[in-house]
Specification:
The chain is α/β, with parallel strands linked by helices. It is built from 14 helices and 15 strands. The strands form four sheets. Strands 1-2-3-7-4-8-9-14-15 form a nine-stranded mixed beta sheet, sandwiched between helices. A two-stranded antiparallel ribbon has the order 5-6. Strands 10-11 form a two-stranded antiparallel ribbon. Helix 13 links the parallel strand 14 and strand 15. It is globular, with a radius of gyration of 22 Å.
C-alpha cells in the first residue's frame, strides 16, 4: 500500500521493452452511484458519514464510451456545503489512490493484523472530521476499467490523465458546490496536480498538498548531461548510508546528516560537477573522499564514476558485501538480493521497499473486501492497487512537445496561486526517499514563480510515504488539519 513513483521507471525502460501485456477490458460500468451510511469515532466524538462510490464513463469525441474513472467520496452527515473538500490521488502512473485512501486520510485503514495478514480497521487519524474526502482512481486502477471495444490509451498520457481527473473534480463540484477545495497528490500525483493547475482556475482552490511529488522530470538521473539530480540525491543517499551504518558521520537524528550533506551538495560538490571533465584530479579525489564519508561507497568507486553516482549503483553497492540491496522508495529498507525476479523490467520495479514480486500487478484483497462488503459495490473482481501494465503504456509526451517527459509543470501552480490569492501550498517529503529526493521537490517549488509567503514545508523521518505508521499518521493529521483550517 505504499505511495509510488514509477513514471521515470517506465521512461528508462522504453527503449528495451517488448510490448507490455494488454490491460484487460472489463464489461459494464456501474450505473449510478452506490451510497452507504457509516459511523466512526474521531477525537472522542461519533461522526456519521456517507460513503459514495461512483464510476464515470469516459467517451471519445463521437460519444463512444472508452473507459471509466472512479471516485470514493466520504461526506459528513448532514451534508454541509460550507465544509471544505479534499481531493486525493496517488501516482504511478498506474497506481490507485489506495496509499492515501487506506494508509493516510480515509476513515478505514489496511493494517497488519495479529497474524501478520492485512485487515481493515478504523482510522483514528482520518481527516473526515475536518473535511469531506474524495479519493480518485484513474483509468486502469482500482475498479476503473477499459470498456469492451474501448481504449485506455487516451487516458494513459500526461494530458489525457490530467483532464480526466480534473473533469471528475469539476463534476463533483457542480453537484456539491463547495466553497473551498483542497487537492493532494502524491508522487506522480504531484506531477498530475501541477499539470491540472494550468486549467483549474475556475475552481475555488484554497490549498494544494504535494506529498513526495515528482515535479521537474528533468531532475532525474535519466536526463543525460544534467548534473542537478546528483546534487538532489546526495542528501538522501547520505541519510540512507547513515541509517544502514555506512556513514562516517555521527548524528542522533537524520536531519543533521541531511543538512550536512545538503550544504556540501550545494557548494563544493556542485562546483566540482560544474567543471565537468575540466576538474583537476586532485580536486576530484578530494571531493570523492568527502562523498565517501557521506554515502558509504569507496572513494575510488566515486572517482571512477566522475563523482556522479547513479541511484541504482548506490542501492546495489552500499550493502553488496552482505548480498543485500537497499530500497529506492525507502532507504531504511534492505533485503537480500533476489535472483528470481524478472530481468526484462527496470531495476526499480524490483525495489525491496515496493514489494511487487514477480507480477506486474498488485491486487488488494482487503480493499476488494471493503468495497464489496462494506460499501456494497457490485464487483466480482479484485481492486487493482498498482499495475505496471498501465505504467509501461504511458505516453510521457506533453501536447505540442516532442521531448519525452522533459517537462516541468510546476510554474502552473504559480499561475494558479497568483490567480487564487487565498490558495496555499504544503510540500511534504521523506528524508529516506531516493525515488523523489526531498531536495528535488524543494528546488522545483522555489523556482516556479510561487508566492513563497504562502508555501510551507514539512520533512518526515520516512521514505516515499511519509504517512506510514501510527506515529507518522498522528503528525500528518495534525499538520494537514492545521493546513485545512488555515492555521
Amino acid at each position: 500500500m505504499r505511495g509510488l513513483l514509477l513514471g521515470l521507471l517506465a521512461v528508462a525502460a522504453l527503449p528495451c521493452f517488448a510490448a507490455p501485456a494488454p490491460v484487460p477490458e472489463i464489461a459494464g460500468a456501474i450505473q449510478g452511484a452506490v451510497a452507504t451510511r457509516h459511523e466512526i469515532v474521531l477525537g472522542g466524538r461519533t461522526l456519521s458519514y456517507e460513503a459514495i462510490f461512483a464510476e464515470t464513463p469516459l467517451a471519445d469525441a463521437a460519444g463512444r464510451p472508452l473507459a471509466t474513472i472512479s471516485a470514493t467520496s466520504y461526506i459528513k452527515l448532514p451534508e454541509d456545503p460550507s465544509r471544505p473538500v479534499l481531493f486525493a490521488f496517488n501516482g504511478g502512473p498506474g497506481a490507485s489512490s489506495s496509499p492515501l485512501h487506506f494508509g493516510a486520510f480515509g476513515p478505514r485503514l489496511i493494517v497488519a493484523g495479529p497474524d501478520g495478514k492485512k485487515v481493515l480497521a478504523d482510522n483514528p487519524q482520518s481527516l473526515l472530521a475536518d473535511a469531506d474526502l474524495v479519493f480518485i482512481d484513474p483509468v486502469g486502477t482500482g475498479f476503473s476499467r477499459v470498456l469492451p471495444g474501448g481504449d485506455g490509451q487516451p487516458y494513459w498520457s500526461v494530458d489525457g490523465d490530467a483532464k480526466a481527473v480534473l473533469d471528475l473534480m469539476r463534476g463533483w463540484q457542480a453537484e456539491h458546490r463547495r466553497a473551498a477545495l483542497f487537492i493532494a497528490g502524491e508522487s506522480y500525483g504531484g506531477f498530475r496536480l501541477a499539470r491540472m493547475a494550468k486549467d483549474a482556475g475556475d475552481l475555488p482552490v484554497k490549498g494544494l498538498i504535494l506529498i513526495s511529488p515528482l515535479l521537474d522530470a528533468s531532475a532525474s538521473s535519466e536526463a543525460v548531461g544534467n548534473d542537478l539530480p546528483y546534487i538532489f540525491e546526495l542528501p538522501a543517499m547520505a541519510v540512507t548510508a547513515w541509517k544502514q551504518g555506512k556513514s562516517a558521520l555521527r548524528a542522533s537524528v537524520p536531519e543533521e546528516i541531511f543538512e550536512s550533506a545538503r550544504r556540501f551538495a550545494e557548494s563544493d560538490y556542485a562546483l566540482a560537477l560544474l567543471q565537468g571533465d575540466r576538474l583537476e584530479p586532485a580536486e576530484r579525489d578530494r571531493v570523492a573522499a568527502r562523498m565517501a564519508a557521506l554515502i558509504g561507497l569507496p572513494a575510488q568507486t566515486i572517482a571512477d564514476n566522475r563523482l556522479r553516482i547513479e541511484t541504482q549503483l548506490f542501492l546495489s553497492t552500499l550493502l553488496a558485501e552482505q548480498d543485500k540491496i537497499v530500497g529506492r522508495l525507502d532507504g531504511r529498507v534492505a533485503a537480500p538480493v533476489r535472483r528470481d525476479l524478472p530481468t526484462d523490467r527496470p531495476a526499480a520495479a524490483n525495489d525491496p521497499s515496493l514489494g511487487l514480486g514477480q507480477s506486474n500487478v498488485i491486487r488488494s484483497a482487503p480493499a476488494t473486501d471493503y468495497f464489496t462488503r462494506e460499501l456494497g459495490v457490485p464487483e466480482n473482481r479484485d481492486y487493482v492497487s498498482l499495475t505496471l501494465d498501465v505504467n509501461f503504456r504511458w505516453d510521457f509526451h506533453s501536447a505540442g512537445r516532442d521531448e519525452l517527459f522533459y517537462v516541468n509543470p510546476t510554474p502552473n501552480i504559480g499561475v494558479l496561486m497568483k490567480a487564487q490569492p487565498e490558495a496555499r501550498l504544503l510540500l511534504i517529503g521523506g528524508y529516506y526517499d531516493l525515488a523523489v529526493p526531498l531536495l528535488s521537490a524543494r528546488y522545483a517549488v522555489e523556482r516556479a514563480g510561487l508566492p513563497m509567503d504562502r508555501v510551507s514545508y514539512a520533512a518526515f523521518e520516512s521514505g516515499h510515504s511519509p504517512f506510514e505508521g501510527e506515529e507518522a499518521r498522528v503528525r500528518m493529521k495534525s499538520l494537514l488539519r492545521d493546513f485545512l483550517l488555515g492555521r
